[in-house]
Amino acid sequence: MLDARIFRLSALGRKLLAQGINPYHLLGDSAYQLMPYMMVPFRDNGHLSLDEKTFNVLHSSSRTVIERGKFRRLKYLDMNDMALVTLVITSACVLHNFTLMHEADSDEDATDDTSNANFTSDSAASEQLDVPSSNAVERRHELMMMLV
Hints:
mainly alpha; 2 strands
């Protein structure tokens, strides 16, 4: 839940709230609020449809791939200076995008398989601060229908 609060209060979080990143989106765990730019799993209150359960499994699988990816060592950085944290995250994003653009040029696997640590932790008991917008709900439903 702390990660979600920090993200929401960050310059990036405020910019995404104001401008979005349509047609793209970020994947967040259940600690994050469903927003048009942030896709989170359906809250499992015991009444999920099969499609919603399938979406949650695919969502979790995608997050796991991302969290175990190229930059998982960032989890172990001990940083207290928020300006430096922002620069490191931005640098990681730039490097990731560069890697994607040039991935076809190389057969090398840049991942480090010595650890399976995650960047974030699921927090199913976390509280949503606001009711998701209808736009966010519709967008998640559209993604669900494309996936199942």
